[in-house]
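Ticket #4471: structure export looks truncated?
Reporter: QA, pipeline team
Priority: medium

Steps to reproduce: submit the single chain below to the structure queue and open the exported record.
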Amino acid sequence: MYNSSIADTAVCHTGESGQSTCRSAVSFTTVASGSGISGPCGFSQVSADAYATLFYHATLVQGAFSGLIAGQLSTGDIGAGAKHAAVMIGLSVLVFALLL
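Actual output as written to the record:
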């Protein structure tokens, strides 16, 4: 389970001409439940499983879209892109099953 939070901070500065300018800094953090923010400078300590899951899903998305683009560029057919995507997704699943 993950806990997410969004923090919005405004930084304002008044210049010599008296004109005020403000900037908004939005930060989004996701922390695995059970692990607190215990690192230096507010860095959170997230488990390795959370990173493995994140990279697994990123690899699947990357494989799917890269496969579609590769097929489209090589033959000009979206069907060939689906074949490329299936191969890339299969390789991603295989690599993560064997290595992790």
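Status: closed, not a bug. The export was complete when the record was re-opened. Leaving a note from the reviewer for reference: The first strand starts at residue 2 and ends at 14.
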